Amino acid sequence: MITTPTKLVNAKRTKDSPVKSSLFRQSIRKLSKNKLAVSGFVVVILMFVACFIGPLFSPYTDNKINMAMMNKAPHLKHWLGTDALGRDVLTRVLLAGRISLTVGLASMMLSVFIGSLLGALAGYYRGIVDQIIMRIADLLLTIPSLPLLFIFGALLSEWKIPTDYRMYIVMLMLSFVGWPGLARMVRGQMLSLREREFMQAAVVLGLRDRRKLFNHLLPNIVPLLIVIATLNIGGAILSESVLSFFGLGVMPPTPTWGNMIDAANNMIDFQERPWLWIPPGFSIFATVIAINIFGDGLRDVLDPKQKR
Amino acid sequence: MDNSIEIDHLSTYFYTEEGAVKAVDDVSFRVPLGQTVCIVGESGCGKSVTAMSIMGLVEEPGGKVISGKIDFSGEDLLKLDKHSLRSIRGNEIAMIFQEPMSSLNPVMKIGEQIMEPLIIHLKMSKKQARTRAIELIEQVGISRPEQIADSYPHELSGGMLQRIMIAIAISCNPKLLIADEPTTALDVTIQAQILDMLRDIKTNSNMSILLITHDLGVVAEMADYVIVMYSGKIVEEGEVVELFERPKHPYTKGLLKSKPIINQRLEELYSIPGQVPNPLDLQESCYFHDRCEQCMSICQTKQPQLQEVGTQQKVACWLYEEAVAHV
Amino acid sequence: MSEPLLEVNHLKKYFPITKGLLNRTVGHVKAVDDISITLQPGETFGLVGESGSGKSTVGRTILRLTDKTEGEIKFKGLDIHNLSPSELRAIRPKMQLIFQDPYSSLNPRVRVGDAIGEALLDHGLTSKGEVRDRVLDALVSCGLSSYHIDRFPHEFSGGQRQRIGIARALVLNPELIIADEPVSALDVSIQAQIINLFSKLQETRGLAYLFISHDLSVVEHLCSRIGVMYLGSMVETASRDELFRNPLHPYTKALLSAVPVPIPKLKRDRIVLKGDIPSPANPPSGCKFHTRCPYAVDICKHQIPEFREVGSQHHVACHLV
């Protein structure tokens, strides 16, 4: 009874308002009412803008070594100080952000792609396809991902992969450990959707598999995917930072937030030169928190289980 | 005191994102002692919300009882504090719902669930409560009561569970039983059993029943007095035979005509055109006017009040307002 | 007599009950146990029963939404359960299903127009340019308006959604529509609208319906022949007038007397059945109805009554008739 108001549509009212209200627009409207989620979104956007456009306005470059300006505390010329090689910390934090955000975004996209594809196949075709895909996923899920990443990282160093390529390989590594959880979720969603009456209707209508998959099943999974994908970016950024912090991810001189915090490993840097590790640390913190807050807001709006 | 409960100008609103919904809008009625009053209406007419309001189950911030008085044995239920309300609820007023499965605790034995109110409200000992619970299970027509008392809800069928719900409801000898669509989820042959049983219990224990249903057949079988609701308002009420034989409001008439009746087949069923108005978008008018075949100009601009027509019948319709009829 | 549109012969559908780690089959739920139905073009057959009677499973097995266990289903002479996937797909548009729940039977993310028109495109029944016209046509004949075409299902009420579901089936020009409790989720006033729509569509398009319902009053209104099911078996079939005037099986009688009638003064001799519907996983021996039958005698407990003809087109399975 309580929910009926939203179900009822007055014939007269619909006639008067020819505006098509799409689910997408509705979601945006609902999301915009959630102040926390909006602020999270704003922070993420600011972070992206700063990292990708900011460095263009910086008088310094990433690798410019300036022996005269080593380990200077923040001052007017170098807002966040300089590091042991006299490089501007602010510029490096922003450039590192480019790498970290790109790695996060790209590995998320890759793992969402692999995960949803495999999950959808498993859930749609079931049987042997399902068995094979899900057993592989199970296997990967039984191995704790961090040690696995460490081993990969160590192997990369062992094989002396050029630092330029490492960034891409790190992305691949992160998607490799990221997809099984996703595939499992998508599969579960597919299985439950399959049993819904509108999918039975699709069978009775004799629709082609392709249409059932792309017009009926996937659109119902997209909201879930958006939510997971968003939350995944945060996780990927964190994992990359952890790897790089341990010197197993992206290596210096290419800056990432993770390998910049490495400075905190050094007792003197840690105690005397907080400008070296606080800015990258804070960037990770702010970005991941903002992404998670935004993701939670998205979930409230998009995840059908939250709706009555 | 010849009324079990008296509801006076009750209004309950719900708040949605799109605005306030007047789920129950200025509704007054009474349930006389030992009688069965039926509230009938379609989904969204406010019949269930009326029951929820009486039971104090409307919770903020989703909804709120805006105004009114619910007089139960001299006390206004809306003014009672939580504690006193709780001692009335389940004790003097009991309620059964449409879905017995979801009203029972799945991990608790049937017997324990019947014993619970006995121990809480009637301060029985565990042993006494157990004996009484078994009596109650027998009373609602279940054989092997001992065995049933030791089983879990999922082991029983829907009809059995509804019997158990009734057993729990009558366990404290309530003065009033509110039954919200108690047989809607059940098969017809089981429905017949449950309705028979409710009737028996009512006669034997002189309990009053407020029955909420959408099924006019059930109303005809059970009710002494009928209240027809539409869009949160009472549009017609009256003694059952009167109302079914001489319905006054066009909505009641339409409702009665649109139900197919066994052994009275017609070539075409009458159907009320259109659909229930959007509760968010109600204008000052008779809410039924755009579906009404006898709609007049006043119906579109002014809301009719519930008026007495005949001895035991009230209707809210401009067709019966003398002042208008003369114009 | 012309060839029947649909012939169901001795259909059985058993669902295995499995237990334990190895999914050992420990028994069967005999959801449908030897059911035969014939349906002529343009006819309406009503299948009545309570929950657990297997009436919905019959509908689903005819449409091959689940596989049969035994028996034969012929639609226009084609054995539905022996068709190849492509043959089955080709025949699908001719036999359509209408669901009970108008909320879950429409995909919330597909616009009404697409939901109705997509099957036309997929089967190549219309060119892209004409789809919209066909959809509009179907919408209007189901009592909806043309501006509804671009809306999403959530913008409609239950009754309107049911109309959309009917339009979706109708646009394919089916010859058989299986309607599984199509009005039981709707309010009385809307129910009448949809029932009338069903009659009107049958008149104008010559559709045949297999109308599955628990509500005898609705079935009486729409169906020319009626079959009553109990625990997977047919207990009685007859023409409408015959069944309502002269019900022979005790279960049919009980069912008829149990339907509440909106006439307060009517005092009927009601047959109130004892007990619950037994579980279809463990049906009683002999006549499945004997546990609740007020007239049961000894033979009912041991011997399964034969389903035999007792009048013209009137079949019943009862020892006492």
TrEMBL record, chain A:
Q: Where do transmembrane segments lie in this chain?
A: 36-57, 99-124, 136-156, 168-186, 217-238, 275-298
Query: What InterPro entries does the annotation carry?
Result: BP-dependent_transpt_permease, MetI-like, MetI-like_sf, Oligopeptide_permease_AppC, OppC_N
Question: What species does this protein belong to?
Answer: Paenibacillus glacialis
A cellular-component GO term for this protein: plasma membrane
Q: Does the keyword ATP-binding apply?
A: no
Q: Where in the cell is it found?
A: Cell membrane
Which protein are we looking at?
A: Peptide ABC transporter permease
Q: Which family does it belong to?
A: Belongs to the binding-protein-dependent transport system permease family.
Query: Boundaries of each ABC transmembrane type-1 domain copy?
Result: 97-295
One GO-annotated biological process of the protein = transmembrane transport
One Pfam family name is BPD_transp_1
- List the residue ranges forming a coiled coil, or say none: none
Keywords noted in UniProt = Cell membrane, Membrane, Transmembrane, Transmembrane helix, Transport
Its placement in the membrane is given as: Multi-pass membrane protein
Automatic annotation (TrEMBL), chain B:
Q: Name one GO molecular function term.
A: ATP hydrolysis activity
Q: Which domain of life is it from?
A: Bacteria
Gene3D superfamilies, per this entry? Answer: P-loop containing nucleotide triphosphate hydrolases (3.40.50.300)
Supply the CDD domains for this chain.
ABC_NikE_OppD_transporters (cd03257)
Membrane topology per the record? Peripheral membrane protein
GO terms under cellular component:
plasma membrane
- Domain (ABC transporter): residue spans on this chain: 5-256
Q: Which UniProt keywords apply?
A: ATP-binding, Cell membrane, Membrane, Nucleotide-binding, Transport
Which InterPro entries would you find in this protein's record?
A: AAA+_ATPase, ABC_Ni/Peptide_Import, ABC_transporter-like_ATP-bd, ABC_transporter-like_CS, Oligopep_ABC_C, P-loop_NTPase
- UniProt xrefs under Pfam families: ABC_tran (PF00005), oligo_HPY (PF08352)
Keyword Translocase appears in the UniProt entry:
no
Where does it live in the cell? Cell membrane
**What stretches pass through the bilayer?**
none
Which biological processes are named by the entry's GO terms? peptide transport
Matching NCBIfam families, A to Z? oligo_HPY
Tell me the protein family, please.
Belongs to the ABC transporter superfamily.
The record's listing under PANTHER family reads:
DIPEPTIDE TRANSPORT ATP-BINDING PROTEIN DPPD (PTHR43297:SF2), OLIGOPEPTIDE TRANSPORT ATP-BINDING PROTEIN APPD (PTHR43297)
Q: In its UniProt entry, what is this protein called?
A: Dipeptide/oligopeptide/nickel ABC transporter ATP-binding protein
Automatic annotation (TrEMBL), chain C:
* Biological process annotations from GO: peptide transport; transmembrane transport
Q: Which Pfam families match?
A: ABC_tran, oligo_HPY
**Entries under PROSITE patterns matching the protein:** ABC_TRANSPORTER_1 (PS00211), ABC_TRANSPORTER_2 (PS50893)
Which keywords does UniProt give here? ATP-binding, Nucleotide-binding, Transport
What InterPro entries does UniProt report for this protein, alphabetically? AAA+_ATPase (IPR003593), ABC_transp_ATP-bind (IPR050319), ABC_transporter-like_ATP-bd (IPR003439), ABC_transporter-like_CS (IPR017871), Oligopep_ABC_C (IPR013563), P-loop_NTPase (IPR027417)
Origin: domain of life? Bacteria
- In this chain the ABC transporter domain maps to 6-256
Which GO molecular function, any one, fits this protein according to its record? ATP binding
Residue ranges crossing the lipid bilayer per the database entry: none
Similarity remark: Belongs to the ABC transporter superfamily.
Q: What is this protein called?
A: Peptide ABC transporter substrate-binding protein
Native species: Paenibacillus glacialis
